[in-house]
C-alpha cells in the first residue's frame, strides 16, 4: 500500500491513486534504497526519473508555469544532476552572445583605447567566398567571443565597451553568467554530498 504522503502527492482527494503519483512514489522509494546501499549512480537516475514524472504530471494537470520551470531545470541542470548540462548551457549563452554583439541592430562593440567600432558592417568585406572575407569574419567573431567570455565571467577588463542595445545584452549575459556559475556550484555540491 502507498503511504498517504502529501509531499509526494500520492493520494488524491477521493482516495484513488493516480498512475503518475504511483510512479513518483516508486522512483522516490527506489532512490532511497539505492542511496542506502551506496548505489549513487542508480539513485541519481531514479531522482531524474522522479522529477521527469513530476514534470509530466504538472503538464497533465494544466500547471504550465510549474511545467516550464521544471523543463528549464531539466535542460539547464538535469534537476541538479547534470554537471555537463550546466557547462553546455554556459557555452550556448557565450557563443550566442558573441554572435549577437557585432550586429549593427544591437549596437556592436567599441574598443576603449582606439574608439574603433566592431560590427559586422564595419569589419570590412565579409564575403565568405574570399579569404579576406573569412579572415574578417573570424577576427570579428574572435574579438566578440573574447568580450562575451569576459562579460559572462564578470571579469570586465574594460578594453571593449558595448554600444546601444549591446549594453542590455551585456548586462543580461553577466547576470545569466552569475546565475549559471551558482547552478554549477549547486550541482557540484549535490554530487559531493552523496
TrEMBL record:
Which keywords fit this entry according to its UniProt record? Membrane, Plasmid, Transmembrane, Transmembrane helix
Where, if anywhere, are coiled coils annotated? none
Transmembrane stretches, start-end = 83-103, 137-157, 169-189
| Pfam families named in the record | Ion_trans_2
UniProt xrefs under Gene3D superfamilies = 1.10.287.70
UniProt-listed SUPFAM superfamilies = Voltage-gated potassium channels
Q: Where is the Potassium channel domain?
A: 143-192
Lipid biosynthesis keyword on record: no
InterPro entries linked: K_chnl_dom
Q: What is this protein called?
A: Ion transport 2 domain protein
Q: Which organism is it from?
A: Halalkalicoccus jeotgali (strain DSM 18796 / CECT 7217 / JCM 14584 / KCTC 4019 / B3)
